[in-house]
Amino acid sequence: MAEYKLYCLDPKGRIQRRHEFEAADDAAAIAGARTEFPDETCELWCGTRKIALIPAGREPVLARPVA
């Protein structure tokens, strides 16, 4: 399990709050974030690695596409 941080953003892109959780991998972390916070725009991080921007109600934008 890896540790993830989810930063929920306000309409101007500023951090409103942070949530920390564990997930098996990046895909599970993205799925969990979308389930918990479907109406919020968030950034998902694992340590210093940005995983994705998850816009409210839209598909995640991966920081580094999976090869």
Order of helices and strands: EEHEEE
Overall number of structural domains: 1
Fraction of residues in helix: 10-25%
Task: Report, as a whole number of angstroms, the end-to-end distance.
Answer: 21 Å
Q: What is the arithmetic mean of pLDDT?
A: 93
Question: Biggest sheet, open or closed, and with what strands and sense?
Answer: 5 strands, antiparallel
Please list the strands of the largest sheet in the order they lie side by side: 2-1-3-4-5
Q: What do these coordinates show?
A:
- This protein is an alpha+beta fold and 67 residues long.
- It has one domain.
- It contains one helix and five strands.
- It has one helix at residues 26-36; strands at residues 2-9, 15-23, 42-46, 49-54, 61-62.
- A five-stranded antiparallel sheet has the order 2-1-3-4-5, with helices on one face.
- Strand 4 (49-54) and strand 5 form a beta hairpin.
- The longest helix has 11 residues, at 26-36.
- The two termini are 21 Å apart.
- The model has no long low-confidence stretch (mean pLDDT 93).
